[in-house]
Amino acid sequence: MVPALTRRPGADGHFTDAERAFVDAATARIIPTDDTGAGAREAGVTQFIESQLAGDFGDAARWYMQGPFKDGTDEQGYQLPLTPAQLYSAAIRAVDQHCRDFFGGRVFADLDAEEQDEVLRGLEAGEPELGDVDSRSFFKMLRANTVEGFLSDPMYGGNQGFVGWRLIGFPGPRYDYTRFIGRHGEPFPLPPVGILGRDGFI
Amino acid sequence: MPTKLPPVDVLLVGFGWTAAILGEELAQAGLEVLALERGQFRDTVPDFAMPQIQDELRYAVRHEMFQEPARQTITFRNNHAQTALPMRRLGSFNPGTGVGGAGVHWNGQHWRFLPNDFRQRSHVEERYGADFIPEGMTIQDWGVTYEELEPHFDRFEYLCGTSGVAGNLNGEITAQGNPFEGPRSRDYPNPPLERSLGTLLFDKAAREAGFHPFPAPASNTSRPYRNPLGVQMGKCTYCGYCEWFGCANYSKSTPQTTILPVLLNRSNFSLRTNCNVTRIKLDRSGKRATGAIYVDSSGEEHEQPADLVILSAYATHNVHLLLLSGIGEVYDPKTRSGTLGRNYAYQMVSGVDVFVEENLNPFMGAGALGQAIDDFNGDNFDHGPHGFIGGAYVALWTTGGRPILQHQLPQGTPEWGSAWKQAMAENYLRSASLSVHGSVMSYNDAHLDLDPTYRDAYGDPLMRLTFDFHDNERRMSRFVTARAEEIARAMRPRSYTVNQRQGPYSIVPYQTTHNTGGAVMGDDPSTSVVNRYLQHWDVPNLFVMGACVFPQNAGYNPTGTVGALTYWAAEAIKTRYLKNPGPLVDA
Amino acid sequence: MRAGLTVLAGAAVLTGTAAGLAQEAGFSDIERGRYLARVGDCVACHTAEGGEPFAGNRPIPTPFGTLYSANITPDRETGIGGWSDAEFERAMTQGMAPGGKRLYPAFPYPFFTKATRDDIRAIKAWLDTLEPVRQEVDPPELPWPLSWRALLAGWNALFFEEGVFTPVPGKSAEWNRGAYLVEGLGHCAACHSPKNLAGAVELDEAFEGGFGEGWFAPDLTGDLREGLGEWSVEDIVEYLKTGSNRFSSAGGPMAEVVERSTQHLTREDLRAMAVYLEDLPAAEEVAEPGDVRDLDELLMAEGEALFVDNCTGCHLMSGEGQEGVFPALAGSSVLQQEEPHSAIQIVLGGAEKPSTEAKPTPLAMPALGWKLDDDEVAALLTYLRNAFGNSASPVEHSTVTDVRSIIEEREGTAALASE
Which chains touch C (3 or more CB pairs under 8 A)? Predict the structure, then answer.
């Protein structure tokens, strides 16, 4: 019996080079490499997102995508006619164009960190207008997918070397805590493990 | 034309908790029972096997176990002035699909509603006067009492091997349990789960604040258990993957771990999966159900005749089927006439995040491992000075520490960047959340009907939800959340954040899968769809299970009460209906 | 029918407890036959996957090639509808079908020959009541000269002894009833004993465990580590009646035996079988649990890590399992068999406890073969065979590879991708 593990990493070729460069740069600002240690880049978040967008998630396979599409209230949730893959593609094109217009012809990936943060803060606040693409929806999705890539099981391509789990102290999917649940306040002694196993034996 | 299949005695539409209970009860009584399930067959191995099941991305984030909106969803609006739009992806609630239904991915938080909850209107009128009930609130009595349901609550708890400690044993208040609970005829079948540090901190703080904390009842087994059907369960190992997941070691009570090993062996029971029922058929008189139409996985339509038809799918799906089948008069909010779709209600949730000094190891937990207070639930306190109806429990649950969705960050933490990362590193192990889980009363403007525009994958209209919170619930929530804040303060945390429920009801963030009403029960056919035995008033050989029969929602998770009502209905069917098929209550 | 009883020596003892009582209570031969067919678990081999019960044509893999089981429904052309009682008896007791055609000893006539002729006729009487099913049976797939049935005369001459079970004087009626069932219709030794090159049971090592379908059917002798030395009579009865006891759960081929056969036997008969099995002496010198073996520390550390990461959800960190639910690894005889094949089977392919009337939950262990490679399985099992006071030889990588290929063949798929 083979468990139906959903998509494994390695869906290279979903992104164009420009898209990959954008995602790589943007996720590295969302979870930066800094004093607390490895960030999205070391975790492999770009690889994670690319593989997610190449699969059912990217296709909105589970979502209701029948029209008519209308703008709704915030309370009514996502109403764009775009799948996540389409949203990324359209948004990245629009953001890079916006950057070229305002940063002397440079695309997002070529901006310095300060400038990138400024653009991301803009997207988060719903600016600038990106034509058909709602910048706030895009930022929300990009931010969520970045966190997913940093903190999901390494078999999906992110959280390589368990960098996300090590940062926060999560030991991965372990099943028996009967010996530990009553040892209040003590640090849990075992190293992180993934669904496919440990990263070599420690 | 659908192909017509050989008839059965009993047809169960949907195969989760209620169908498993009824299937066992009625097959044991010798009837030929068939269950139709829209999703797939699933069992502990291989479908919930470790380690694959402990996959937050696949199940909790990407929703693999839940209903797919692509196939069927609802449309939603806050009020009649808006145009309802489809819920394109799941958010506020997560109905299940597949054998076991949401009974597979629930937490195991196994409560009994309070005695007064079942007499909601009478009780309020008696204690506070009829004027206490605000304009537009349509609460009513259930038509069944706690005393009548007690043996059935008990049966369901013993089926599940629920872990807990009695607070009221035949009227005697005990020291350790919930002193506010209705009297129970015997203690829980298993002792409480082990306590996490978080629950102990809550317990101490709640006592300090003058409240009465107790271990929340858990259908996660605290020790190996064999239920009255002989079905075996393991003990919970606190892996922290109950809610949104199947259980890998037979320690969360689900249809699979408590009933199916016996039921699936019965020769007079059968199950067909990947069969989506689209209509209940009535005969020409409109007074008798003749069976159901369903679509199988190849798109073929079949007609399954049956003498007795029971809607046992998720609450919203049962109502949708009644609407699609044209059974009963649809509720019209303008004229207040009609009953079908009326009195939709939900749950009012808020919380307080606490950031403590101690390492709480949040990843060690169980879906219903929690400490709670019931001091402010139901009518356990005098509402007179407060001017609202209903209440909430406050609990600290240690359900797990799955990193993507289960982390709390202090107020003001940015959503991204170094500060976010720093806050994650500092707080993941040292934070917890107090949840305030409150009731929602029913109102004349909260209801379900068919959407005029959007259709599901079978070409049928989606169901439309019109719902918003009312002032009564907001005030209730503010009041109980302030009590939660008292407990949070007494925990002496580094900091805490109060998350009040604000703004209109939103379909986006997850709240609870506790959708209630739409086909409510009661004593009066002009205000209810089913009678006190969950039998349809107009079509006596049609019964409707699930939380869609709740006339309004109490401040508890619904499954314990849903299970008790199912046993109650099963008994009525076995001891009365089968002897004399017809209305069990005169309309 | 009843006349047969008086002819046979010791028949009163043979019918011992339940069946004897049943006779006195006036149960028909047909009902007794149905019961005895359960003892023999006829349905197991004589039913193809998805086929009608007892209509045969199930492939029976043997080391020599594949045989197909007979259709034993009373269909005149394809089944045994045309057989007389005497012809049926001859097949059961001599391995000879009507017309003098010799049967391959994969059909356990070397065991069935010990059954009383009266019991055999009762089985026939019951089989006669079945609905005839037309089901042709495929010819055996054996290389020449094994396909030449005449050779079986030689096999019989060497390895087969015809004759009804003879009660052992000085042993209790219960013991003798147990011996009759275990050695005869129950044919336990067919799996639980080593076989010689010709596929016959090594009589001097009977019940010391043997290979079957890629599993190692464990030692049933009194050996403390590998055998039933720690088990009481009640433990054995509970295992056979319910599919599990405080030590172990039935898995693999034994799960089917419990589900179809032993759970349906009377407690009296199960007790008799247990009394007999309890009396089997340990084969060799009983090894004390806890032998210290010189094992590679690194390998043991890897094995321990794999155990902690993969097994503890049910068997717990302590390896003690959960009584009555998940078997203990500490002291497990399946784990400590000299031949580790069954343990490897369980790790690679998973196992499921039978659903019995007494314990209906088919508690299952998931397969781990998709995740663990052969080296990891070897390390894990070497650790488990020597942790918690267990002691057994290290598991070789190559043994895991062999078992994996058996499973892959069985599942007809490359499902268990070895990395």
Answer: A, B
